Description:
By secondary structure, this protein is α+β, with helices and mostly antiparallel strands.
Amino acid sequence: MxxxxxxxxxxxxxxxxxxxxAIPTRDESYxxxxxxxxxxxxxxxxxxxxxxxxxxESVRRVRERIGxxxxxTEVLRVDVxxxxxxxxxxxxxxxxxxxxxxRLYNVDFSREYRYCLEERIDPTPDQDLSVLRLAAEEAExxxxxxxxxxxxxxxxxxxxxxxxxxxxDQFRKEDPDVLQLSSSDVIPRLFEQAEQYDVExxxxxxxxxxxxxxxxxxYESYGQVGHSPARYNVPGRAIIDESNTFFWxxxxxxxxxxxxxxxxxxxxxLAWSSIGNILTAIQIRExxxxxxxxxxxxxxxxxxxxxxxLHDADRGGFTFAPDVGFHEDVHELDFSSLFPNIIVTRxxxxxxxxxxxxxxxxxxxxxxxxxxxxRGYLPDVLEPLIQDRDEIKAxxxxxxxxxxxxxxxxxxxxxxxxxxSCFGYQGFSNAKFGRIECHEAINAFAxxxxxxxxxxxxxxxxxxVHGIVDSIWVTPVEGETQxxxxxxxxxxxxxxxxxxxxxxxxxxxxxxxxxxxxxxALTKYFGKIAGEDAYKxxxxxxxxxxxxxxxxxxxxxxxxxLDEERSPEQVCxxxxxxxxxxxxxxxxxxxxxxxxxxSKSVDEYTQYTQNVAALERAESMGLSRSAxxxxxxxxxxxxxQSRERVALASENPTTYDPAFYRTQLLRAAESVLxxxxxxxxxxxxxxxxxxxxxxxxFESR
Length: 701
């Protein structure tokens, strides 16, 4: 079974694994296919033009569904000569006639996925894949030659030609199926070096040479700026670029291969794809199984709404105002995969919502939308994912085999991310099969479910201290009789049709206020898990990517002291010792590294922040960063307004700015103590009142 697809000189080559190694199969006859429908235009006229087109192999009329709400109709099937011609032909046809006169389908598929979809190939490998990691330091990649490489478990060092000769020999010996790279830039750099130093027979693939599939780019998604590095390909091996892979980093090989089997995206493409991209691929497979074509551009109009409907629909999931403070004996309950289960149990699907056949019904609470009784395609896509994840989680609870647990956890996490995205996808303007009314209906059902659940808990002796969309935290009301939570969870599950699970018990839970007011921060809390020597942290500094390791560890230690002592004064005493360490220069510099993702290029910033100083410093060393990339540095003198304000982590700085990190430490301490009513000014006063203590006294605690 093919696990890797290459296109070399216009020919498709798919690689299968056998006991004797990888076997390539050349497919000289493959031609990609697109479809054209006519609207206020002539299908026959379009066909006559296309038959004489130099980039088109063949044209014929076929009957296909151009949408889930459509019956089969005549369209043109257009077989294009090669992959490079698909977009050229599509752009040409879309410009004919008035806007929308001709609509195109199955156009913008990624190339390996297109091949598997059209040739009906399942790219899930039927044998175990061998994976080897190839890594090089960034400084050597930007300022060659490369004189040190990590390959598998070995370090290859020496002169530039010696390193590549050793790498070439190791490749011939190991012959990995998957090549995991520290950065995709390793590929062109090593090939350039091999040519410069005349290293005979050097190759990273199973055939000579390499290809650049895409250049680097910057993008924006949900208000976040991201950076996509250049992508490269070597024949016969799947490339995993650690700097450009979500699923590999969030799951593991087993998780990725589970999604390969569901989406039919080969491993290499799946590794660089986004969550939405994979969900789309799964939906496309379902659409094609039903004879539905995939629109190139989304042209779904939003159906008419009254002003009242617009007001009621333009709301998200329900979130209770957190009851700020330190709460003891708290219990968390979560609805299992709430949004996907709403889609499945309520039949929320783009082609079924606000259907004409039940226009007189009001199925969606508060919005008055109808939902057709006929089963929709989206529930059919998601229900197997929900059921499979439930089965995986059940097996996880039973197995003690470490290897099996790792595989199951990877699969569970992979499915989780797909389920998480299915709701937001419905509101995405460029979604192939999304519909804003689905997004609105899911939110409406979720709001009703959470409010009804709150009422049940409060009627049975429980106080709701917080609730976020699909999770709810309760504590017993003093002086009232409590109905057992397992009984209430079973009752609510039956009424809602979605399982409410008992998630965790906490000895205590601290709900953090906003920094600038007494109102609760919706997603900031921490607590001690009952019966375990463990804590849960959400939203506070130790969970934030940019927080230096020293600050993360310090905040977790302060929480531990709070748990043991239940005294803000004792927490401040511990904090004082941490401040002492900082001010005496006793903290390792690598524990103070700040890592931030930059949102602009260096010349676009109007204020001289630490990030700007770090970007300037990186640029001066040939380590320039684009918007969406990360930069790591230690603040060495925050008073300066030059690149000397910081030192890059790769420079191994010998100094740091104690005042800057003291501010960061106090900010983290405020998150810990603010649920008890202690704010920054009171914490500073308490810390300053202590006589300085030695590091030894702190470590002896």
